[in-house]
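Q: For a teaching handout, I want to show students what a protein-ligand complex looks like in token form. Below are the inputs, and the small molecule is F0G. Please produce the holo structure.
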Amino acid sequence: MRGHDTRSKGAGVHFHTIIEPFRIKSVESIAFTTREEREARLREAGFNVFLLHANDVLIDLLTDSGTGAMSSQQWAAIMQADESYAGSRSFYRFRDVVADLTGFTHIIPTHQGRAAERILFHTVLQPGQIVPNNNHFDTTRANIEVEDAEARDLVIPEGRVPSLVHPFKGNVDLDALERLLAEHGDRVPLVMVTVTNNSGGGQPVSLENLRGVRALCDRFRKPLFLDACRFAENAWFIKTREVGQADRTPKAIAQEMFSLADGCTMSAKKDGLANIGGFLAMNNNAWAEAARNLLILTEGFPTYGGLAGYDLEAIARGLEEVVEEPYLHYRIRSTAYLGEKLVAAGVPIIQPPGGHAIYIDARALLPQIPPLEYPGIALVNALYLEAGVRGVEIGTVMFGRHPDGTETPAAMDLVRLAIPRRVYTQSHIDYVAETVAQVGRDRERLRGYRITSAPAALRHFTARFEQVS
Ligand code: F0G
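A: Here is the structure, written as tokens, with F0G included.
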């Protein structure tokens, strides 16, 4: 990949080509299928790629969560893990790495991010309360709503316009947050900020904005929690886009991000570079005690929290590797590289490219398919049929149905191509770009879908479809 923004340091000399900062020691074959086979598999799956067997997928961009490749150092640490039930050496190694990074007093392991969310919100929320965020991720929102509280999105207006370029489209609208805290502060038990902002296109939040949120939290005496799943990618964007940050290490920037908060929820399946795991961390003693009691009830003893000792080792090492500059440089550049190729092919995407994924604007690409015939599903299915590439619809199927059974178009019909960490090489990404460009050329031939069966909630996972004739 050639980088336009910053140059890579190859052997001490400046190079334009940014290479994968690793060599490959162990490989996993991927399965090629014919178009006829893919047509049969997709039909059996009710035209829903969630229901495919992963073996029938060539390049899997469904999610960047838990799908990354671990390093030889992580595998080595796994072999050395301590599986003691209580007080395992691996827990203390994990705790020390998380404490060094975040500075929080209480570090509570959980089996993944949503478990940390459930424990936090069940501990602190009362019915009728409001939790503001830039954009809540689905599981965060669901874990707030299940407590009969409200999840409110306060991202800046620029963050809602796909084609608009802004360096920190994940920023919180500080005026809107101030108004909320002034008018309904008694109903807000904590403020959250998601870094990077997944639901808004993997967009970063600036340090300046985080400092602004902190100042409001100080003024209204509210704790601030980060949803920190992609904290390292966010730190890299700060380093490369925010004035005065270029000479700092990503780790120092990440430490400052955490120092502005009072706690965090974390899915280690993203920037923990692990296949499973997460944590809840905070400074508040009373909340931490209540959270640990709930943890024991549903996750496990506080020194393992639903994880094996070897998972704790993998996360500890992963958190050290994820802030390394060569890794982040390659990571963010390789996502932008895919984005640039799609733009060059005339495919509309959320601008600028996010950290972990490219989001294609399927509604803009397929204007002949009305939102209620699911342009996102049409595009996802076409990418699979064309070349065995799996993405995910983030649009009307995911968000369009309401609790009263009615259906309206979602705000956007997007297709997310999420890039697993350290898994695919540049030629895999070139292949994906070629696939999208080919489908883009054939776009007038694509048709919409209708749902033939769907569950009452979270229908996108298991709904079945047929093509509109
Ligand atoms: N917060 C954000 C911003 C996320 O993106 C996710 C997961 C979670 C919380 C929940 O973490 O999966 O470990 O329970 N996002 C994945 C995705 C599933 O595909 O974007 P988890």
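A: Two things your students might notice: Residues 104 and 282 are 5 Å apart (CA to CA). The two ends are 42 Å apart (CA to CA).
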